[in-house]
Amino acid sequence: MGQGIPIAGWRLTGTAELIAASQVQAPNPRPRGLDFEQQLLPVVWILGAAVLVLAAYGARRRLLKALARWWVIADELDPSGAVVVLPGDAPRLDCLRRAIELKITKWVPFIVLVNSESSLAPSLDGSAEQDAFKQGLPPGGLLVTHQKNPFSVTSFLYIRELLFQLHVSDIILVTPSIHTRRAHVLAGTLWIPRGIRVLFCPVADPDFRTAAWWETSAGRATMFKEVAKVASTWWQLRRLRAEAFHLPAGLDGRITR
Fold it and tell me: CA 187, 193, 198: angle at the middle one, nearest 5?
């Protein structure tokens, strides 16, 4: 049953063999359109990327200006318990003058000046206090504290403890515009979760013009260095919570009035 029957040199195929043969399908030829589409796809991606690059280049001024506007943090200012001044590298006296203006107009009790002891930031002890008194700041209205790096975690911890001792829970932070983003990263982890309200008041930095910082080598260098410092600060804080930070034993800073 199902075997071929030979007749006069011919072999008649049985039913089972016919069924098996009918089930074997010839391979489908690959449509030519598919090959063309696969060859065209990389070209489409390259053209799309080129269009995006050209569009970004054409709008680079707007994009870079928008980046600077986002980078600099400026809040609506209300009367607060203190003005904290973080001058950074420059301009120190401009920051102090702005703080004195806020003390007078916003009825702030006193100013805390965080002075850097690094070699790149000379002491403000004499000139800053003289400048403050000349502009009408009464004696005792300025509190100067000295830190190796005002924008370090240790410095922000020390300032936090100092504010707690002074019973201050809301401050205006005066700092050069380029440093506001880094200060926001630190304050957002170390101060704000502990109940200290922070309002940011940026001061214009001559090396960082918001409207055209990319046009000068000083502006580009300032921005790139600050981006690297913000990334480094974020990396230090990323695995830690505000409650985990404590002022190291024996760290009492150096304060002058």
Answer: 45
pLDDT tens for 3-57 read 555 545 545 455 555 455 555 555 555 555 556 566 667 767 776 776 666 665 5
Contact 82, 166 (CB under 8 A): yes
46-80 pLDDT per residue, tens: 767 766 666 655 556 788 888 888 999 999 998 89
Q: In what order do the strands lie in the sheet with 82-85?
A: 197-203, 170-176, 82-85, 111-116, 142-147, 254-256
Is 87 in contact with 96 (CB distance < 8 Å)?
A: yes
Looking at the chain, list the stretches that DSSP marks H as alpha helix, in order from N- to C-terminal side: 15-23, 32-58, 60-71, 92-105, 125-134, 153-165, 180-190, 217-237
Cα 240 off chain centre by: 17
Supply the pTM of this predicted model.
Answer: 0.71
Contact (CB, 8 A) for 175 and 226: no
CB distance 116 to 108 below 8 Å: no
Tens of pLDDT, residue by residue over 104-155, are 887 788 899 888 765 344 444 455 566 666 666 766 688 888 888 899 998 9
The pair phi, psi for residue 21, each rounded to 5°, is -65, -35
- Cβ atoms 169, 199 nearer than 8 A: no
Of 250, 212, 200, 241, the closest CA to residue 99 belongs to: 200
